[in-house]
Request: fold
Amino acid sequence: MRPIWPFRHVGLKLLSVAIALLLWMAVSGQEIVERGLRVPLEIQQLPAGIELSGEAPATVDVRVRGESGALSRVSPGDVVAVLDLRAARPGRRLLPLTPDQVRAPFGVEVVQVQPSAIAMAFEPSATRSVPVLPAVDGRPAPGYIIGEIASDPPTVDIIGPESAVRRVTEAPTAPVAVSGARELVRQNVIIGLVDSTLRLKNARTATVTVQIVPGPLERLLRRRPVQLRNLDPNLAAQAEPATVDVTLRGTKATLDRVEPDDIVAYIDLGRLGPGEYTLTPHTDASPDAGVTHIEPALVQVRITSGKR
Reply:
């Protein structure tokens, strides 16, 4: 057997002792401190067929103790309070929350939790089918109205606490934009529930179809003067005929709101020089009613040099 020399590699042994001593001094020299934290509350093991009625607190306050270096390294999410609900039964319950129910990193001691108990209400779970209620945002183009609105699927199943399920009569959707539309609008939108304790069993989105149809009534405005716009200042122009008939379409309420002077017929003469032209008249849009027809559809315009 080879003899053991206690002083063999004495330099390395002394170095190891020195490093261990320095580490001990560094650790033992850290101050023990306490710190308050607001941490997330995690709910686990809710039994099947039981629903939490109302909102549970999202966070709780804890007080932790440890070496200053260890606490300085604690980041959000490292400390989590856990509430085990496997024994939950219908009714109002006061559930204790102790330091033992808080997960924390090694070297961090949880000394206090506030609140020390949490009041919760539980109900039997229920399911119900309710119609999807599409929401529409905006107004179609002037002269058009919103027709039939359909949703696919037409109904959805909701799940939640029994009392909350009984109160729900419909599942609204995110709004479908129809501003300025002149034809059918189809869009996939999210189905939402106002009560946060409820959830959808299957479908999360719906395909909403909005029919856009012409207004049911028409109104004729006769002999509206034709304005000649953007004519070069050094030119003169004359329209034949000088007036046109304008037909509006919309609902009775919107047509009744339109005054004759609200509808202005015009022809744009921008960049045109002297000569004779056959041009299409236009109208300024009305916010309520749409222009469906201008008679005559073409107007003769004569442009000459210098104003007469």
